[in-house]
């Protein structure tokens, strides 16, 4: 508290400033003003240019969404049922893909009762799943659909604070899980990702795009915009996937009130480490998504053509539950042509825009910011209208990146040291306040099938008679499967090259 003399001097100084029209020099702010460490413009610059994961702190303190804990959401949903994915807590060498999980329809109140071990769960939708052995995850729940009759709650989420005016809960996704709930390691083909942690903590295992070959990418199970890893990064099978040793894990435990930036094409495996977790995310469109849609169209065409020609097998659930059906070759080819057309249309618009820049273009925002987009014949991919001036930020020069100041409000997610690699991370428990572990080193929603799926993908295990005594494949007996062929054909590097050649052919 200032002394009486200091108060008098301050009063005199203010009076002098008032009389001399120097009020701006005081930089006064209204009482109770919400001061954030980054302006929306600076936050957007960081999001669109930073090529490594980082955690924003103290950016969402005034967001009503911070009150979206499970009890509040349960009251808000008022008995509405949602789909939960059920998985085993036991750690296998094989990833728990969505094709290997069960699904139940339940209210959030029933989920909370189950997670607390209440007797009422003995006859409810979770009655077959003992809490100590299973986890449950209501993942990819689009808020626009979940609260379609309560649109006022969209404004509880204010991505405008990160430089995206008009983006709210309508363009966001909700995730509710129990301890152990996880998302298999994958990369997203489109955009970058902002993730707000609301309740509980989640541990993120992230790997840079340069580690793609070490993560053994696969498109089986197939899902548009998701490239999965064959490796269970939390419990890797190093005999089968020896190159994973070369991957560089970046790990962070995200706590409530923090926002994680996941840059484009960073691999990530996410697990809930508290009894109940709630997260909200939004995928931000990037200029590179134009070509990515062409690549995804090529991938879908190849996967559907080859797998549909194969004799159907109940043991090979190659289509992820998020995909409604295997689309026909004609439909896939139409979508490919529209993706290519949209690519050139946006390129032309970009050239025109550079010649005639718009003063308000940077403020335009799309209302359709969904990671997965359902295709409809006769309609163009979202393409050009999805992307505005985000490219202006993605082309920031290297010297500008150096000006990004890390500190208590923007924390780097650093690589793991060899001593505390992701393989041993499960044995390392941190204090609730610890953020960084180690410092060296589209479809609208997930339209799951209602049926229960507990079948392993047929490319996950190699029969014993095809292994030598030392555990290596027996070359004389190994039979390559259709999935092996597909893993080569739709490898991200191959698809990228095919897309470039195809676009070049179209340009001629």
Automatic annotation (TrEMBL):
It is found in: Cytoplasm. Residues 135-299 form the JmjC domain. Keywords: Cytoplasm. Pfam families: Cupin_8 (PF13621). Residues 355-383 are annotated as: Disordered. PANTHER family: HSPB1-ASSOCIATED PROTEIN 1, HYPOXIA-INDUCIBLE FACTOR 1 ALPHA INHIBITOR-RELATED. This is HSPB1-associated protein 1 isoform X2. It comes from Apteryx mantelli. The gene is HSPBAP1.
């Amino acid at each position: 508290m200032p002394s009486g003399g200091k108060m008098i001097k301050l009063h005199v100084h203010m009076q002098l400033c008032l009389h001399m029209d120097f009020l701006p020099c005081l930089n006064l702010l209204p009482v109770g003003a919400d001061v954030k460490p980054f302006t929306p413009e600076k936050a957007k610059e960081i999001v669109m240019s930073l090529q490594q994961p980082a955690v924003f702190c103290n950016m969402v303190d005034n967001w009503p969404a911070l009150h979206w804990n499970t009890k509040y959401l349960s009251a808000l949903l008022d008995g509405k049922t949602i789909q939960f994915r059920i998985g085993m807590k036991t750690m296998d060498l094989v990833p728990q893909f969505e094709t290997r999980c069960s699904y139940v329809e339940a209210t959030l109140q029933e989920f909370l009762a189950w997670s607390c071990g209440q007797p009422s769960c003995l006859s409810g939708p979770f009655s077959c799943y003992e809490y100590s052995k299973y986890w449950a995850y209501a993942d990819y729940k689009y808020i626009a659909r979940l609260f379609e009759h309560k649109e006022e709650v969209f404004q509880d989420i204010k991505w405008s604070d990160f430089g995206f005016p008009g983006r709210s809960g309508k363009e966001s996704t909700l995730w509710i899980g129990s301890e152990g709930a996880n998302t298999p390691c994958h990369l997203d083909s489109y955009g970058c990702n902002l993730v707000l942690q609301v309740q509980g903590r989640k541990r993120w295992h992230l790997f840079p795009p340069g580690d793609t070959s070490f993560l053994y990418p696969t498109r089986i199970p197939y899902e548009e915009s998701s490239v999965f890893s064959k490796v269970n990064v939390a419990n890797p099978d190093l005999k089968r996937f020896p190159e994973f040793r070369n991957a560089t894990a970046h790990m962070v435990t995200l706590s409530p009130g923090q926002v994680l930036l996941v840059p484009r094409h960073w691999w990530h495996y996410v697990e809930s480490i508290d009894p109940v977790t709630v997260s909200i995310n939004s995928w931000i469109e990037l200029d590179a998504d134009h070509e990515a849609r062409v690549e995804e169209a090529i991938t879908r065409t190849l996967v559907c053509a080859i797998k549909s020609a194969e004799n159907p097998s109940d043991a090979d659930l190659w289509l992820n539950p998020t995909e409604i059906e295997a689309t026909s070759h004609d439909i896939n080819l139409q979508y490919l042509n529209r993706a290519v057309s949209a690519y050139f249309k946006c390129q032309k618009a970009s050239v025109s825009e550079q010649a005639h820049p718009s003063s308000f273009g940077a403020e335009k925002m799309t209302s359709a910011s969904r990671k997965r987009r359902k295709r409809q014949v006769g309609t163009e991919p979202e393409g050009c209208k999805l992307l505005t001036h985000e490219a202006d930020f993605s082309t920031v020069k290297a010297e500008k990146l150096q000006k990004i100041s890390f500190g208590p409000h923007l924390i780097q997610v650093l690589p793991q040291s060899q001593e505390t690699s992701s393989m041993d991370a499960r044995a390392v428990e941190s204090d609730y306040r610890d953020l960084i572990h180690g410092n060296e080193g589209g479809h609208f929603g997930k339209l799951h099938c209602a049926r229960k799926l507990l079948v392993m993908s047929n490319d996950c295990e190699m029969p014993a008679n095809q292994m030598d005594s030392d555990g290596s494949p027996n070359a004389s007996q190994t039979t390559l499967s259709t999935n092996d062929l597909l893993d080569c054909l739709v490898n991200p590097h191959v698809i990228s090259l095919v897309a470039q050649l195809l676009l070049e052919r179209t340009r001629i």
